[in-house]
Fold this sequence. Notes:
Layout: H1 22-30, E1 34-35, E2 39-43, E3 53-61, E4 64-71, H2 74-83, E5 87-89
Parallel strand pairs: 2-5
Antiparallel strand pairs: 1-3, 2-3, 3-4
Amino acid sequence: MKHTAYEKRPAPPGGEHILRDLDALTLMLAEGWRIEPPILARLSWAQRRTGELAYHVILERAAQRSLIVVDDSPAMHHFLDEHDIPVIETSPPPHLPQT
């Protein structure tokens, strides 16, 4: 059976957050995935009103690619510094003046 990056597996308890976790990212790296730099830091969709960032990480293994989104945290900052991974912070488009 051929496996793909989109293979369906039963979700673990609390699985809705499994792809927003630094532990999930480090697990994928241990399984042979590699980060494709740069990482994009964007306004978190879930936290738009607070201005919190989320890191969008593209992972590659063989001919597969996967996206994992990790919430901003001191642990994520340490991970990025430790691995010397470039990050590009994207900002939302400026609001147009109302007329």
